[in-house]
Specification:
Nuclear Transport Factor 2, Chain: A; alpha+beta
Length: 147
């Protein structure tokens, strides 16, 4: 028996809540022991492992709030069993620097008993690091172009 319906329903509910700015509803969708993982430069406020209710609250309420949303779109979702892969794009401006970071992203969600247990983000970490004022490595560009 497949759990696709429950997984898809949870993912859609979470993204609907994010779209309307209801971060409390997003937070309520997580299991107590859920983990949010975002790789990247450690000085970016929303990079790291957020594995307690307090840390997840910080992730959604404080860390993500340091950039202004210009656009955000979910373009698709693949669901298999308790896992969902959500694909999308974003464009944000870091409030402290005025710099944009934008690009495509993929998000791996895992659902158990109707609650999120994993939120693993994959995104353009160089673009984000540069927007938060990091010096670019020699020859690197935020768009991934090669010299």
């Amino acid at each position: 028996m497949s759990d696709d319906t429950g997984t898809r329903a949870v993912a859609e509910r979470v993204f609907a809540a994010r779209a309307r700015g209801d971060e409390e509803a997003v937070l309520a969708s997580f299991a107590d022991d859920a983990v949010i993982r975002v790789e990247g430069a450690d000085y970016v406020p929303f990079v790291g492992t957020f594995d307690t209710p307090e840390r997840r609250r910080f992730f959604f309420m404080d860390a993500l709030g340091q950039a202004t949303n210009v656009s955000r779109a979910v373009r698709g979702m693949i669901v298999e069993g308790k896992d969902a892969i959500v694909l999308g794009s974003f464009d944000f401006v870091v409030d402290a620097t005025g710099r944009h970071y934008k690009g495509d992203w993929a998000l791996h969600l895992h659902v158990e008993d109707g609650k999120l247990t994993l939120w693993q983000m994959y995104e353009n970490t160089l673009s984000i690091a540069l927007a938060f004022d990091a010096p670019a490595p020699a020859g690197a560009t935020a768009g991934g172009d090669r010299p």
